[in-house]
């Protein structure tokens, strides 16, 4: 019952709906480009009337347009997040990267939003025209590409920093600690005093005591998700040549990872409510 309630919350959440549609869009794209479906239709290996690839491609574009409508003003949130980091007054290197990343995502969403009316293809209601609309969407892909590259760089540096802090102590230092403990025990035996418990009346001031260790798994998943998403704008602007099947599979992987975050958030909101 709890799982059903969480599914309902996920299915009625704006981010959950957008992630679900993105997953369906990736599946439709995979069906449209995967040769096995075309071969099955030609050889009549299935009793189901398989539509032609053009129908699936048209369905993919309609789903993508629906997702853009769901993200209509979300770019304002990205601009606000970037401004909050800038206004905090702590502009170190990581904060500057965060501002650039969120601002790039904001510009990407803004360019997608202003071309919505043209993509609806309603007569006498176009704003930019087909050529200018295609140009604006092409530029939007560059801003998305920049944002993903920054996010990848930040996640990779954070992961390396965490792994560097978790380096095991060298055997020499461990042996020295064992020798010191043995000497202290022998000294207490000679004095006749009761041995102290480890770390009794001692306070450690290292980073392990003052700073919580950041989990590694979410960073690794974010790296994978950003790397998969990077194929989409990189291929759209012509930086890489990737088959449509590969892009569809990458889109499915990244959507599953990011949808899991939304699913967990919906679960937390349900328990709080």
TrEMBL record:
UniProt keyword list: Membrane, Peroxisome, Peroxisome biogenesis
Cellular-component GO terms for this entry: peroxisomal membrane
Organismal lineage: Eukaryota, Fungi, Dikarya, Ascomycota, Pezizomycotina
Spans traversing the lipid bilayer: none
Keyword Membrane: yes
Keyword Cytoplasm: no
Major subcellular site: membrane
Signal peptide: none
InterPro entries per record: PEX11 (IPR008733)
Pfam families xref list: PEX11 (PF05648)
Any one GO biological process: peroxisome fission
Protein's name in the database: Peroxisomal biogenesis factor 11
Organism per entry: Trichoderma harzianum CBS 226.95
Residue ranges of the region described as Disordered: 167-212
Ranges of compositional bias, category Basic and acidic residues: 175-211
Cellular compartment(s): Peroxisome membrane
